[in-house]
Every structure is written in structure tokens, then in C-alpha cells.
Model the fold of this input.
Amino acid sequence: LECVGIADRACFDLNAHAEAAKTDLLYRETLDTPIEKEVLQITKQAGVATMKAFKKAGRPVKEWLEQLPEEQLKALVDETKKNGSATRSVPLAEGAEEFTFLPEHVASETKKEKVSTTTFMPGVVEPSFGIDRILFATLEHSYYARPKEEGSDEKQTRGVLAFPAAIAPYKMTILPQDQRITREAKYDEISGVIRKRVTALGHTCTVDDSNATLGKRYSRNDELGIPFAVTVDFDSIKDDSVTMRERDSMAQVRLPAKDVGQVMHDICWGRKQWADVLKTYPKV
Done:
């Protein structure tokens, strides 16, 4: 799965833009200390001979020769010396046209030139970060299926999105043990205490009071990546305590409803681990 694509475009794009727009896109950098170097150039007489020989096209052809890279100019000079002439395609305003050069058109000389700047066409590295790719990779790495219990004839796969508590969109779900609990006034009070505290600490939680069994609701919320589930049962009505379940280990502890928000908050911020909670509160 590709999350980030990095294309080394070199200077292809800028060269193509410069040619199409007829614009100089070279980068110029001033040297701290000017340097002298030998450069191969056509002579003044060669420029005059070129302009006379090619008439209307003489000036652009002369300018093309003057701007020709040294290696290409040297190759052109060597070819005219060897064969008596050489043909090259020259880009003009109306389009490319072929010209045949004689030795007098490309007579050259080596000169010493002081260089105070260096020019080059910058290379381009094009990184591509797709948020959809990154999100898909997060989901892919977080998903797993719980192994089936021995002797179980369960056909449905119990999937889990193992989001760390710090990045899970919903941190907790509140589950009444069954529909009878929801009819109790005390249930509204307990769930209200938990939700108010969780919200005050900057987190989000859901309530799943559907008709499904408690086990199926656990599995449903595991698939949604919710790291904690709090169950309100008939004992909760009597002593204001609830059962808190951790998604990955499926371990459960019994604790006061008023402590739930802070415990979850400390785990989300890395101040506590679930192992610390297991040591603090009685296991169920």
C-alpha cells in the first residue's frame, strides 16, 4: 500500500515550461569569489559570415550558435573540419529548420572569461501525500479479527479496530445491561454523570441501548474502534458503580461511576496504562 509517492522529476518539467513559454527559468547563484575559466566561442568574423550566409535567418542562427553548449559547439566545429560541412536543426520563431554550416560559419576561439555567477536548472522532487491513503493505512494496520473460542460454532468474524485510545474518534460507549435498566431513573443519573465528566475533559462517548445482547453490543463497538465500554447493571442502581471494559484485552474492572471519566482521560493522555487500572480497581 503506497501512502506517500515521491517522484524525482529532475529538471524535465522546468525545461519543458521554459521551452514552451520561451522564458529563461535558470537559477542564478552569485559566487563568493569570481573564477576564471576558458570558454569556446565563435569568432566575430564567424558571426558576420553566418548572418550573410543565412540572410533573414542569419541573426537567430548566430544567436543559437552563441548560446550553444560548449560540448555541442566543439562537436559541430570538429564535424565541419572533418567533413567540410555539418547540418543542424535550429529552432526558429516559425519552427525548427535545418541549416548546413561551413568551417567559416563556426570558426571558434578559446577565451578566458571571469565568471561571477553560476546558472543551472533546478531539479524538482514532487511528493504526493494522499490523506485517503494515510487513513486507509491506519485502518488496515488497526484491524484484526478475534480468534474463535474452542468448541464455538460461531460463524461471524469478530472484527476489531484497535485504535489507540489517544486517536480513537469515540473514546467510550455506555451500555445498559438490558432494556429494563433504561426504565430506571437512576440509570439516567449515572449515565449523565459519566457523559458530563467525559465531555468536560474534551472527549466523546456514545450510548448503545439497542435490543441486542450485551456481548453483541461489545463486539459492535469493538468494530467501531471504541476502546472502552461502561456497563450499567442492576448493581449500579444500588451502589453507583459500573463495569468498565477495555477493548483489546476484554478485561473488566468495577469502579465508581464518578471515576470513569478521569480514568479514561489519564489513559488517553498516557498518564496511565490499563495495567495500572487493573491494579487499582477489582477485576470482574
The chain has eleven helices and 13 strands.
